[in-house]
Amino acid sequence: MAKNDYDLADRLENFAASVILLYSKMPNSYAAQYLAQQLIRSSCSTALNYGEALGAGTVKDQINKLRITLKELRECLRNLNIQQKAKLVEENKLKELRDENDQLIRIVVTIIKNKL
């Protein structure tokens, strides 16, 4: 396993942790809590599925896990976009998360393309 694999694993874990930290202070409205809970699930899922990809027994299984990671990252981005449009969280708090989310999507897409 390459050092870059672990760097991406750390970035995905840090992304999930950043989501958790931001939403531990989330307003108590139904919409805010609903989206926050879903974002926490999908952001944590990215790190967990990537970890499974690193331990996959075959390239096919690894690609499948990477595709799940990508799906969850895209879900995170849609969620963050909805929260921004609904003004549930201040834009400056979401910008860093959205930027990192976008970069992570690009990295995972590149990894999948290189494995095909």
Per-chain topology:
Layout: H1 3-23, H2 30-54, H3 59-85, H4 91-115
Describe the structure.
The protein has 116 residues and is mostly helical. Helices cover 84% and strands 0% of the residues.
Tell me the major beta sheet: none
Contiguous low-pLDDT stretches (5 residues minimum) are: none
Number of strands: 0
Helix content: over 70%
- Could you give the order of the helices and strands? HHHH
Helix count equals 4
Q: Tell me the structural class.
A: mainly alpha
**How large a portion of the residues is in β-strands, by DSSP E?**
under 5%
Q: Label the overall shape.
A: elongated
Mean pLDDT: 92
* Oligomeric state as shown: single chain
Rounded Rg: 15 Å
The first-to-last residue Cα distance is 18 Å
Task: Provide keyphrases for this structure.
single chain; 116 residues; mainly alpha; 4 helices
Summarize the structure in short.
The protein is built from four helices and no strands.
